[in-house]
Amino acid sequence: MDSYKKPIYWHIRRLVVSHEDAEDILQETFIQVYRFASFFKGESKIYTWLYRIATNECSRHFRKNDNKMLVAEVASNELSETDIENSDVILLKFQQAIQQLPERQKIVFNLRYYDELSYEDIAQILNSSVGSLKTNYHYACEKIKKYLIDHA
Amino acid sequence: MLKTRKIKRNQIEMNMEEYPEFQKIGKKTPYKAPEGFFEDISERTLLKAKQNVLIHKKRLVFRSVIATIGAAAAVILFIFLKPGQEPRPVSNLTAQKQQETTQPTIQIKQETTQVAAIKEIKEAVPAKNIPEKSTITEEKIPEEYAYEDVEDILNDLSDEELLQLAAMYKEDQFIDVLSQETTNIN
């Protein structure tokens, strides 16, 4: 748990934005891991299994809550505590652009861009084909790019 | 159709990593985790897991209690309302109450019919002929006949009448039979 808690937390945090929600989902993820540890076949890598559980928990959270408006609130609150620089504003806009994406594209983009997972691993996590993931990633990048140009 | 799809997919793959705008932004995020968050997250997770187990157990107990109550209620309902059986009166008390409420109405009806019949008779017969109260009940028995003993009656009779009575007593079959029966019993 210790070696995976940080990357899993940041994966969850980038998806759900709020720290409180991310903490709840992280805890729930590890509870699920303890509960179903005996069912893990060992055919896939352990971190893909962890990411899969965490991503499923995030999807469950998305079905319950709509957090598109949260990015601006949470990020601006956290940025206001420190001196706002130009780089921080760009980061905030970038995150807002990611949050505008459909759920699938958002997950694929985060896993590929931030976590630097291979398409094969992402395919295992999302139970999808590599080709469709690449398409999803491409559309996500295009949408983010367009958002940044429109909100420059 | 398939060819155009393949070309499009290849174009996407070719352009996949060509986003220099993102290279400038880097992989930083504006989000921050509270200090010391990752140090005690394992302990908090274990605590939450224990709480979840307790909540799960409580839910199980609550559900089992509800299930038993429901089953008991179903059994009681089945006993009282068996299929194909007429519904019983709710209780004897209610039946009694129903009787109490019905009986006085019948009496009142009977009284009303009697009154109507008397009225009809009165109308049919002239008023003079009908005594206000029955004569039999109001007629007074003379005092001399009110309490007459057998001895007084015998004293009043003459000797000849007494002799005739004695002869009748001897000749009468029924009196003889009665006397015989009394002797047999004794």
Give the arrangement of secondary structure elements.
The complex is a heterodimer of chains A (152) and B (186).
Chain A (H helix, E strand, L loop, with lengths): L4 H12 L2 H17 L10 H19 L5 H12 L4 H14 L3 H12 L4 H8 L3 H21 L2
Helix pairs in contact in A: 1-2, 1-3, 2-3, 3-7, 4-5, 5-8, 6-8
Chain B lengths: L1 H14 L4 H6 L15 H40 L11 H33 L10 H4 L4 H4 L3 H7 L2 H13 L1 H13 L1
**What is the terminal separation of chain A in angstroms?**
41 Å
> DSSP strand (E) fraction of chain B?
under 5%
The coarse overall form of chain B would be rod-shaped
Number of helical runs of chain A? 8
Number of domains of chain A: 1
CATH fold-level assignment of chain A: Butyryl-CoA Dehydrogenase, subunit A, domain 3
What oligomeric state is this?
Answer: heterodimer
Q: Which regions of chain B contain 5 or more consecutive residues with pLDDT less than 50?
A: 11-16
Low-confidence stretches of chain A: none
Number of helical regions of chain B: 9
Shape of chain A: globular
Largest interface: A-B, 38 and 26 residues
